[in-house]
Amino acid sequence: QVQLSESGGGLVQAGGSRRLSCVTSGQIFSSSVMGWFRQAPGKDREFVAAIVWSGAVTYAESLMGRFTISRDNVKNTVYLQMNNLQPEDTAVYYCAGRIGAVLHRSTAEYAYWGQGTQVTVSS
Q1: Contacts 24+ apart (CB under 8 A), 9-13
Q2: Which long-range contacts (CB under 8 A, 24 or more apart) does 74-78 make?
Q3: pLDDT digits (tens, 9 = 90+) for 41-71
Q4: What SS3 class is residue 62?
Q5: In angstroms, how far is CA 109 from the centroid of its own chain?
Q6: Rounded to whole angstroms, how far apart are CA atoms 64 and 81?
Q7: Is the per-residue pLDDT at 28 higher than 80?
Q8: Do 93 and 48 meet the contact criterion of CB atoms below 8 Å apart?
Q9: Is the pLDDT of residue 32 over 80?
Q10: Digit-coded pLDDT (tens) for 64-104
């Protein structure tokens, strides 16, 4: 059984930084693509970033330069470093995973999801 568990959310002031972590249990991490998504109140869940086991990455264009995704294949953990956070970044952030090596951006492509972690940015 595959489980994803996010941590690192919380309250941060505008302009601040936060690093989210997602630990994956189960036998998928080494052959998986891992993604981060977010969902603000009243909005659809949107793509943030994705990374494959080899290290190739892709980002939502609007977040490039502020957010960085990385992974530690020994610790079975994927990270999302978020810098210069703004109130519009307030959302529940979800980690997602699937087997494969394609950098998917659609929620429908991911089979495994974490429970989410809340990030709130105050102005």
Answers
A1: 9/92, 9/93, 9/117, 9/118, 9/119, 10/118, 10/119, 10/120, 11/120, 11/121, 11/122, 12/85, 12/119, 12/120, 12/121, 12/122, 13/121, 13/122
A2: 75/23, 76/23, 76/24, 76/25, 76/29, 77/21, 77/22, 77/23, 77/24, 78/21, 78/22, 78/24, 78/34, 78/36, 78/51
A3: 999 999 999 999 889 999 999 999 999 999 9
A4: helix
A5: 15
A6: 11
A7: no
A8: yes
A9: yes
A10: 999 999 999 889 999 999 999 999 999 999 999 999 989 99
Structure tokens at 59: 């980002």
Take residue 58 and report the two structure tokens written for it. Answer: 């892709």
- Amino acid occupying residue 80: L
Look-up: residue for tokens 């294949």?
Answer: 73
pLDDT at 30 over 80: no
pLDDT at residue 65, rounded to an integer: 94
Query: What would the two tokens of residue 92 be?
Result: 């529940």
Q: Which two tokens stand for residue 76?
A: 């079975």
d(CA 115, CA 46): 15
